[in-house]
Amino acid sequence: MRHPESFSLTQIQPYTLHKPAFSFLTITEPVNGSYREKGSKFLAFAFPVEDEAAIQAELAALRKAHYDAHHHCYAWVLGPEGVQYRANDDGEPAHSAGDPILGQLRSRQLTNILVVVVRYFGGTKLGVGGLIHAYREAVADALNKASIIRKEVMFSMTIRYGFGSTPEVMKLIKEFDATIIAEQYDDTAVLQVNVPLKHREALVEKLELLKALKHEIDKRVP
User: Fold this and answer.
1) For an engineered disulfide with 210, which of 125, 154, 176, 215 has Cβ 3.0 to 4.6 Å away?
2) Domains of the chain, CATH where assigned
3) Whole-structure pTM value
4) 28-79 per-position pLDDT tens digit
């Protein structure tokens, strides 16, 4: 008697209750820009980042390299939906530096990015309006040089299945653009895969279809 093949899957990353973003825009590599106004130099540095640890590392490196600068103002945005962000004036008048930097990131819909503008004071005060303009222009100069790409939001899933169901599993992996990142073979096969978030509902539906076709499926998707 033929025993039904068994499947189990576990999603690694949690889902939020609001509609998720399926892709986002970011830069591919660090870029620099600059702006000068009345003797002051504004040096902009943009970095692609994945988390706050990377942000702090880049900030520390710039502070060390430009230890003699008067200000290290910055803004960053994280996450596919850009809900994590921060702007810092670093001693400049309130909202004259960090907010203009952040505004450039928002206007270009960029996330997973840090931009720092290092200012060397030239001896002449620019006023709040002048500072806003200078910081905005320095960031624009850097971002105009950046290579911007759209990245897919991915989620991780573990699929366990009997060897007899290998063709069906491989077909789903190909159909939904999944990438195998780990695999283990014992009494059953276990694959850990990354899948574009936009395919989540369709993939779950196909797994439910296998269950309806008498495959034994243990499915856990939060």
Assistant:
1) 215
2) 6-17+153-220 (3.30.70), 23-150 (3.30.230.30)
3) 0.79
4) 999 999 999 999 999 999 999 999 999 999 999 999 999 999 999 999 999 9
